[in-house]
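Contributing new complexes? Match this layout with adenosine-5'-triphosphate.
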Amino acid sequence: MNTTATTPVFGVRNLWKVFGPRADRVPGDPLLADLPQADLRARTGCTAAVRDVSFDVRKGEVFVVMGLSGSGKSTLVRCLTRLIEPTSGTLEIDGDDVLAMDGSRLRELRRRRAAMVFQHFGLLPHRSVLDNVAYGLEIQGVGRAERRARAAGFVEKVGLAGLEHRRPGQLSGGQQQRVGLARALAVDPEVLLFDEPFSALDPLIRRDMQEEVVRLHREEGRTMVFITHDLGEALRVGDRIALMRDGRIVQLGTPEEIVGAPADDYVRDFVRDVPREQVVTVRTAMRPMRADDAGNGPALPPGATVSEAITAAAHGGGTPVRVVENGRCLGVVDPQTLLGVVAGVTPPAGKAAA
Ligand SMILES: Nc1ncnc2c1ncn2[C@@H]1O[C@H](COP(=O)(O)OP(=O)(O)OP(=O)(O)O)[C@@H](O)[C@H]1O
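Output block (do not edit by hand):
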């Protein structure tokens, strides 16, 4: 039986984290569980940071947890490895019950299976870049020669070759961030948990680091959970995004689903300024081919964005762009469709939100 293809990395069901006195009475009490945050606080002195949240993190995806400050992102992600103890619900990693783990299995979980990359990486100031990267391996008991060799490979992978012998204080913020990333990668965890790793960086370096994460993800296919309050960052790095508000997930979907089919007014408002043509794909925007369509227009794969199709259409003199996969034409996008997406007047025909 093949369970690996279907077992999610994290399986989370009805998870709650309530802070405050007698917190565990809140999830099970219908009179309290649905109260707005301020009313709950007034009535009980409690804050429900995570409320009845269920989702799977699939193998190999970048799963983004996004929301405004205070929406519960950090609490939720810390619950995954019980850095914060959930109040109720169930939580599995690869089918193993995380809530049943004892201290040593939890340490093992955090060290080898789900490593956290924090905003402030906590680099060791008196150690070289190489030794900082090797540190996690040292804790795992890997011998000196091997850990330095493995660490050198990751230093190179994150673009720091030549800086191995510097100390963290001799690096820029972005370079320090890369050291932290290399250190997390070196211990080869099954899943990397990023807590707003780039929010302290200036915008250009931040963009670099986002691209780095996407590149590493493509090369390694490693599962990542990524917290951010920045919508642009979420759209750039996320395969799927869980948008949180007041402790709940208000929508969970691909960037295209979130932007193309917002679940409610809150999400619609959140994504209002996102250029739809950069997120909506031609797979969603296309219409079936008709007999009168020229069969020789420019061709794009279904994952191409509408923005790319506009460029192709412009170069092709305005003929419909064909959407082609494995040599088969799935449909076409004509200039009218493309303009409709940009103007937001054509609701993407395809997918509803997950
Ligand atoms: N230890 C705690 N005790 C009481 N309330 C807490 C505690 N930690 C967090 N909270 C509250 O839980 C809610 C969610 O906080 P959390 O830090 O998870 O939000 P966040 O979305 O990560 O915010 P930010 O983007 O500002 O880090 C907030 O209302 C916060 O005040």
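Reviewers usually confirm one structural detail per submission. For this one: The chain has two domains: 59-88+95-270, 276-343.
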